[in-house]
User: What shape does this take?
Amino acid sequence: MAPNPVNGVNSSRAYEPANDDFRNSSVLIPLITWKKELEVILTLRTQSINHGGQLSFPGGGKEGDETIVETALREAQEEIGLHTSGVQIAGQLTPLYVGHSDNMVTPVVAFLEQEQSFTPNPNEVDEIITVPISKLIEEQHMVEEDWELRGTPYRVPFWNIHRVPLWGATAMMMSELVELYKEFLETNSHP
Assistant: This one.
């Protein structure tokens, strides 16, 4: 799900830090378990903040001696009003370096086992959406288009699941989650 330059130049170095002074950040990938099927929560970020107007997971920079998990939970509390009771941390996905903001982002997967409502923090979140994981598996929601990003033409894969495309770092993290979910389904469908 990584955008690639149309000219064919390898852009993998954009996902590797040049040195060790990047900021450690984390996002929470909240999975709702109390609905008919597993759903993931995304936020539409307000225009006035970094990555504004994009779909993302709740998250942000590590503060003080926080662990990556504590950062993800704190940010989800701040951004969507997450109640941490009934939250089971499933684990972490592969950390992803986001070069243009110099952040090493660790996705933390959590199962939300107790029903709750969410409230967007208007300073950071315009909208909270939930998407069934099954919708992310369906190929008709996967799209590729040529976009211009920072003055360079890119081939950008994204999920067409909202009026705003799910692309970039969030889509890359989501892709790993979807692959793990597909493996889980395949493993558990055989006797």
About this structure: The first strand starts at residue 4 and ends at 5. The CA atoms of residues 89 and 110 lie 4 Å apart.
